């Protein structure tokens, strides 16, 4: 009997099946179908917002406000369900595709917001491979959570397959007329909604629907417009529009300094170490760590690097430090390494290589992480030593040690007859910081916090101490060299310590807000130690907090090197601003301008900075002969990077 039931064909046309009430010419079934679709969409949108927000009262409040984007989202979802039903040929079967997909995105969005402080952006999927590469660390940190997720995924997929097959057998197929009617309704209306999603242009309809793109504050954008609409509004951000006024004349009008490219008689080696998540953990309230985990950094400190990120997104700090360009002029949530670097792009490596340097990048991780292999080639590096090409490095904890990376830098520098430019990115102190990460801790942590948080902080402190010893070793080695050597050392961002911040009272949440309430709070949550040191003159002093985009200026100046952009243009910019961030401008005297991008009048120097960056990254490269002469006639696209 069971085999007969399985083999029994479902009724062919829903509209012509009297048992379902779908009789030709009757309006009630059509109305009923529409109301059910709206109800399903409403429940689904509510569930999405509840998952993302993690707050039932806040989710209810989002929908109780009339004429708010939540209701528009429900209508859009209903149209998607109706249109997809027509494609699949069964009423409401689209729910089996749309619900798992959107609810999964909502869960991922909640997790990203919880751990990194940022919403989920469409461009995040460009580096999904990085997330999978970090899964072993996450599994080690929370094995039961990982197991529950695997069980849930397997069970969910099994249930979905079962439900799909059962639905196809039990629910009659739609007639050709019914499918056409659904498409006729859904497709034009969905096309209309897509047309009003371009946040760069004003839309009267979008304004009436109270969908207000808040692209300068993405956290508020997602809170105000809801997850689905805010996510859709961010789709166009992969395209960077030309700044207002961009033209040949505007580029020609940018002041040219009289600075030209020049080198000292003896070219110094330049070594930049960007230390993963390096920070001073003794800044946590009520925390005492003995002995001091970073005594060498404290003794040599030049100032602070003001990170545009918190707890992650290392590639964005790299981008600024190597190019002298700013993330402040790119769409919020974008990752230049993933989206925009597709042709040779001017960088410190490009310039120094043109002056006879061997430009080398070192990172003990994989070469595809953050798309580094392709990007470093476009930046002009001669070679990139990664996990694939480095000799096996000794590990400290689960990752390659800072000591082993330091050995590699020293070995390669000593073996080179030509001057070298090293850009090294460490890996050892990458989060998460699971308790008992190191079997032989040399520090103790005293703090009125939970045992888990204290042990997690100890794991981080041990890694910071290793990074500090790596700096000490580089400096002691360079002191004995006859060749001039400049060393720059800084942390890319504050570490993702999560609950440690909350328990110590350093932060209210696991991560700092993207938009800080005061400039002082921004400085507190985004500064990492910065050292610029020369074996000829010692440490540079009193730099204060500087954006990574200004690091090329300070490093080359210390090395006695000049360049029309890196020391000329950026030098003049540095006279006016020491921090250029998406949400904050800070002058050398500490005068702050929050929300500068929303003001009608923007400082002409900032305008020129933005125009010059756009011209070199996306425009006609009209500024190249004057500001980046080493790049002229060398622009050839790497088509293999487009895949």
TrEMBL record:
Please give the SUPFAM superfamilies that the UniProt record associates with this protein: Alkaline phosphatase-like
- GO molecular function terms listed in the Swiss-Prot or TrEMBL record: transferase activity
Task: Tell me what topology the record assigns in the membrane.
Answer: Multi-pass membrane protein
Q: Does the keyword Transmembrane apply?
A: yes
Q: Which GO CC annotations does the UniProt entry carry?
A: plasma membrane
Q: Which InterPro entries does this one have?
A: Alkaline_phosphatase_core_sf, OpgB/LTA_synthase_biosynth, Sulfatase_N
Instruction: Name the keywords, alphabetized.
Output: Cell membrane, Membrane, Transferase, Transmembrane, Transmembrane helix
| Parts of the chain that traverse the membrane | 30-51, 71-88, 95-111, 144-164, 185-204
Outline the extent of the Sulfatase N-terminal domain.
268-561
Subcellular location(s) of the protein: Cell membrane
Supply the PANTHER family for this chain: LIPOTEICHOIC ACID SYNTHASE (PTHR47371), PHOSPHOGLYCEROL TRANSFERASE I (PTHR47371:SF3)
Q: What is this protein called?
A: Phosphoglycerol transferase MdoB-like AlkP superfamily enzyme
Organism, as annotated: Mesorhizobium sangaii
């Amino acid at each position: 009997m069971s085999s007969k039931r399985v083999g029994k064909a479902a009724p062919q046309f829903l509209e012509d099946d009297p048992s379902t009430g779908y009789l030709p010419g009757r309006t009630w079934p059509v109305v009923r179908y529409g109301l059910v679709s709206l109800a399903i969409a409403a429940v689904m949108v509510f569930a999405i917002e509840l998952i993302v927000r993690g707050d039932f009262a806040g989710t209810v409040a989002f929908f109780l406000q009339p004429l708010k984007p939540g209701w528009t989202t429900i209508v859009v979802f209903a149209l998607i369900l109706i249109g997809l039903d027509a494609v699949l040929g069964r009423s409401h079967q689209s729910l089996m595709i749309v619900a798992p997909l959107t609810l999964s995105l909502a869960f991922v969005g909640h997790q990203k917001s919880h751990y990194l402080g940022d919403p989920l952006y469409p461009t995040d999927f460009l580096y999904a491979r990085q997330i999978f590469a970090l899964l072993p660390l996450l599994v080690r940190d929370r094995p039961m959570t990982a197991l529950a997720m695997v069980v849930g995924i397997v069970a969910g997929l099994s249930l979905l397959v079962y439900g799909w097959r059962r639905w196809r057998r039990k629910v009659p197929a739609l007639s050709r007329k019914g499918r056409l009617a659904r498409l006729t309704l859904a497709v034009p209306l969905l096309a209309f909604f897509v047309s009003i999603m371009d946040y760069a242009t004003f839309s009267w309809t979008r304004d009436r629907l109270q969908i207000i793109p808040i692209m300068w504050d993405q956290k508020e954008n997602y809170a105000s417009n809801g997850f689905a609409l805010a996510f859709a509004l961010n789709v166009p951000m992969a395209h960077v529009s030309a700044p207002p006024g961009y033209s040949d004349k505007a580029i020609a009008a940018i002041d040219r300094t009289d600075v030209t490219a020049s080198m000292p008689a003896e070219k110094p080696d330049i070594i930049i170490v960007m230390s993963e998540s390096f920070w001073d953990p003794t800044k946590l309230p009520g925390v005492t760590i003995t002995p001091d985990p970073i005594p060498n950094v404290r003794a040599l400190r030049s100032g602070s690097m003001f990170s545009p990120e918190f707890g992650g997104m290392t590639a964005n700090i790299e981008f600024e430090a190597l190019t002298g360009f700013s993330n402040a002029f790119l769409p919020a949530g974008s990752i230049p390494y993933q989206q925009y670097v597709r042709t040779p792009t001017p960088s410190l490596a490009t310039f120094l290589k043109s002056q006879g340097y061997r430009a080398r990048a070192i990172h003990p991780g994989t070469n595809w992480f953050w798309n580094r292999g392709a990007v470093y080639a476009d930046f002009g590096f001669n070679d990139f030593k990664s996990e694939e090409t480095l000799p096996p490095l000794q590990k400290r904890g689960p990752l390659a040690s800072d000591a082993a990376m330091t050995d590699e830098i020293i070995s390669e520098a000593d073996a080179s007859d030509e001057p070298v430019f090293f850009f090294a990115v460490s890996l050892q102190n990458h989060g998460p910081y699971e308790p008992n990460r190191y079997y032989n801790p040399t520090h103790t942590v005293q703090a009125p916090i939970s045992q888990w948080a204290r042990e997690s902080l100890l794991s981080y402190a041990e890694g910071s101490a290793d990074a500090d010893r790596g700096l000490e070793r580089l400096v002691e080695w360079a002191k004995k060299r006859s060749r001039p050597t400049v060393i720059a050392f800084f942390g890319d961002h504050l570490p993702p310590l999560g609950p440690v911040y909350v328990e110590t009272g350093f932060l209210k949440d696991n991560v700092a807000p993207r938009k800080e309430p005061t400039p002082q709070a921004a400085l507190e949550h985004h500064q990492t130690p910065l050292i610029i040191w020369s074996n000829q003159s010692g440490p540079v002093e009193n730099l204060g907090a500087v954006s990574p985009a200004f690091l090329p200026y300070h490093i080359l100046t210390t090395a006695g090197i000049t360049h029309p952009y890196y020391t000329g243009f950026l030098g003049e910019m540095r006279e006016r601003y020491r921090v250029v961030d998406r949400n904050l401008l800070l002058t050398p005297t500490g005068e702050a301008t929050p929300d500068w991008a929303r003001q009608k009048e923007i400082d002409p120097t900032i305008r020129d900075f933005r125009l010059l960056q756009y011209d070199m990254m996306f425009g006609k490269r009209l500024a190249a002969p004057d500001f980046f002469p080493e790049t002229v006639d060398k622009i050839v696209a790497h088509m293999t990077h487009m895949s």
